[in-house]
Write a structure and sequence with these properties.
Number of helices: 14
Strand order of the largest sheet: 1-11-8-13-7-6-2-3
CATH architecture of the largest domain: Sandwich
Strand content: 15-25%
Number of domains: 3
Number of strands: 19
Largest sheet: 8 strands, antiparallel
Shape: globular
CATH superfamily of the largest domain: Cupin
Radius of gyration: 25 Å
Length: about 400
């Protein structure tokens, strides 16, 4: 049972998880005023640090103005002695573009900014779908992008300043990842010219949820606007169908009749299609895509960061009272005599099964309660990490 509200309930919505899942998720926008205080995730000072001091490279930043993305060469350059690669961000060039009205887009902050990394991992675990977090920094009166729709759900979290959001209903509901808005450009343009279903000003602490396919555009007002877009890369029934078809074809590959060569000249192919369809339907009913689908889900996420120095120190200093825990966001589970994780699949001897079962609770454990040899092996494999002291 859930003992306390997760990230969704405590930070992004105020209607409760069950009602959100039942009435909102994937169906309709939701605006939550004063959802929370987000300075722990992102601030103007943090944005300046990322841009000017972290040595970021493309594609971790994009620059857009009036609906057009600027070329990378307009904001990147070699980084000087010892770092001559040519695609590092040039803070002077970025400043000039920003002062001229361009929007700065910091991509994948769940990879480069620790507070957002923790937030994204927790939300992804809770929703069961991969998460990407971008920051949009728009100068006063600036507009980075024209009306468009996204192929993933988003939670828009306003950090600083204000931004006007104009939203229209979809022209292509629930688009898949290979169905971008540019495939429906004319319809998007026509719909955006009509009355909006939502026209609102987001203020710091507000959160707006948009399912994929909803058309939107945003414009900063009289001050610099910073907002986070938390993109939810939705798993869909179509994705599950893909895995079901692949599992079916794999099964048919083991059927000698399905491997048989078609007749010379390919006459009478209608009869062949009938036989193939019959075997295909039988294999489809029997196919189980669960394991490959779970594998794809694991591969789409990343485990919690791993410090090689602290990891080596834990191995070298290992003793029975060393405390360790399962590495975060590992998506670990036992499948028979194997421990399956995002960093590999590991055979578990029968005598180690009790210890492995205990560590899967995610709590802190002493090495002696799991088995010192098991702990050393899993520390070296990146499955366990030293507990925080």
């Amino acid at each position: 049972m859930r003992t306390r509200p997760g990230v969704l309930e405590s930070r992004l919505i105020d209607i409760g998880r069950e009602k959100f899942a039942r009435e909102i998720w994937g169906r309709t926008p939701l605006l939550t005023r004063r959802a929370g205080e987000f300075s722990d995730l992102c601030t103007a000072e943090g944005i300046d640090e990322l841009i000017s001091r972290r040595g970021l490279r493309t594609p971790f930043l994009r620059v857009a103005k009036d609906g057009t993305s600027l070329p990378d060469s307009s904001f990147t350059s070699p980084a000087g002695a010892g770092a001559t690669i040519g695609d590092q961000l040039d803070d002077t060039m970025l400043w000039r573009s920003f002062a001229d009205g361009a929007t700065l887009v910091l991509h994948a902050l769940h990879r480069t900014w620790e507070p957002i990394s923790r937030f994204g991992t927790d939300l992804s675990t809770e929703l069961g779908h991969p998460i990407q977090v971008n920051a949009y920094i728009t100068p006063p009166g600036g507009r980075g992008f024209d009306h468009h729709y996204d192929v993933h759900d988003v939670f828009v979290v306003q950090i600083e300043g204000t931004k006007r959001w104009v939203i229209h209903e979809p022209v292509h509901p629930a688009p898949l990842r290979h169905q971008p808005w540019t495939d429906h450009r004319a319809a998007v343009t026509r719909t955006a010219a009509g009355p909006a279903c939502i026209d609102t000003l987001l203020e710091p602490g507000d959160c707006l949820y948009l399912p994929r396919g909803w058309i939107h555009a945003a414009e900063a007002r009289d001050e610099t606007s910073i907002h986070l877009t938390v993109g939810v890369h939705n798993w869909t029934r179509h994705a599950l169908a893909e895995q079901l078809v692949r599992a079916t074809l794999d099964a048919l590959g083991d059927d000698p009749e399905m491997r048989r060569t078609l007749p010379v000249g390919l006459d009478g192919i209608g009869d062949e299609i009938g036989a193939v369809r019959e075997r295909l339907m039988t294999a489809l009913v029997e196919a189980d895509p669960t394991s490959p689908f779970d594998r794809i889900r694991r591969e789409q996420g990343r485990p919690a960061p791993l410090g090689p120095l602290s990891q080596l120190a834990a191995v070298l200093d290992l003793h029975p009272d060393t405390t360790v825990r399962l590495r975060g966001a590992l998506h670990a589970r036992l499948e028979g005599s194997y421990l399956v994780t995002r960093v590999g699949r590991f055979a578990v001897p029968k005598e180690d099964l009790p210890g492995v079962t205990r560590l899967l609770d995610g709590e802190t454990h002493r090495a002696k309660t799991l088995g010192v040899d098991l702990v050393e092996r899993f520390l070296r494999a990146g499955i366990l990490t030293p507990a925080e002291r």
